[in-house]
Amino acid sequence: MSLTKTVLNNSSVLKVNTANTRHCLTDVVKTEDWSDFHFTKITESTVSRAMTSRYFKDVYDYAIADVIIVGAGSSGLSAAYVIAKARPDLKVVIIESSLAPGGGCWVSGMLYSAQVVRKPAHLFLDELEVPYEDEGDYVVVKHAALFTSTITSKVLSLPNVKFFNAVTVEDLVTKPCEENDKNSKLTVSGVVINWTLVTMAHDTQSCMDPNVIELSGYNEDGTRDYSKKHGVILSATGHDGPFGAFCAKRIAALEPETTEFKSMKGLDMNKSEDEVVKHAGSHKGGVDSIFFCGMEEAEIYGLSRMGPTFGAMFVSGIKAGEEILKHFAK
Ligand SMILES: Cc1cc2nc3c(=O)[nH]c(=O)nc-3n(C[C@H](O)[C@H](O)[C@H](O)COP(=O)(O)OP(=O)(O)OC[C@H]3O[C@@H](n4cnc5c(N)ncnc54)[C@H](O)[C@@H]3O)c2cc1C
């Protein structure tokens, strides 16, 4: 039977012969009304075991990680891409309190769509093969979601990355760098995590204990193993908010002598993007093994907020990622 469908194309009426349309299921669907179409049989318990065996194997395998990235916004994802791609031997865990990765990067300013990226950050878009309109000094991606979905899929397809979403970092594991030195500076040696829904319910229920992911490079007694490179945390939790700027706030509370939580300053696009890139990397304070990128830096270092231009998010992630790669290369 020959089927015809009328579609409008540039105001002209076009007849399309759908009998000629081929798609991935054409060869398995034998009837016009799909009445012969069935999925392969499965038991409900098979579905359950397929999910849980893999999830809990990941929980087990990633109980110790080389790099823990807190927050899967545009800066954290950019860093994850750079680190995990360059060093397939490093175990990279990304913890994201929301269901969806991407943070504030599903939309642009004021919930608009088009994403402005100032040059030279467009080079990262080229690498990811994200299309854009070139406007000279800046480029425009037609929808922020195009960038976010592309980088998310590239990061998640790297075999050394584990993404735990709907999980929140509730605290940091801290140790003295030198066990027997009471003046030793603190090092962060892991993160304390919980299901986000549990984190949100702490005010209503008591004693819902968390779990921990440890950084590599520590001995069983908790002291640093100096024969190895120790793991690091990259905090990319964004602006202060219900969960945001988490590590910045926690470190300032733990180490008030060396770290001040300064809060972001007023908007200045030109100043802020350069500053955010400049400050990205290892924490400029007394606590070891923690790095920052993205807008969380504006909160901890008191930088200007930048407005809806996203290049500094990608580039600060790339710069922090490069510093972390240097740390592991030494
Ligand atoms: C108050 C405020 C002001 C803003 N001002 C600007 C501005 O001036 N300019 C601008 O471009 N954009 C601004 N934004 C939007 C947005 O923050 C940025 O555009 C951009 O998305 C920041 O990227 P990021 O990677 O640093 O962080 P985000 O995109 O915010 O990503 C951070 C991610 O970390 C996750 N997270 C946070 N805490 C935890 C935790 N404890 N455990 C696990 N995951 C966690 C969050 O769920 C989120 O997905 C603002 C947002 C807010 C709330």
From TrEMBL:
SUPFAM superfamilies given in the database record: FAD/NAD(P)-binding domain
Pfam families: Thi4
Gene Ontology MF, one: metal ion binding
Keywords recorded for this protein, A-Z: Iron, Metal-binding, NAD, Thiamine biosynthesis, Transferase
GO BP annotations listed: thiamine biosynthetic process
Keyword Transferase in annotation: yes
Protein's UniProt keywords contain Transferase: yes
NCBIfam families documented for this protein: sulfide-dependent adenosine diphosphate thiazole synthase
Protein name: Probable Thiamine thiazole synthase
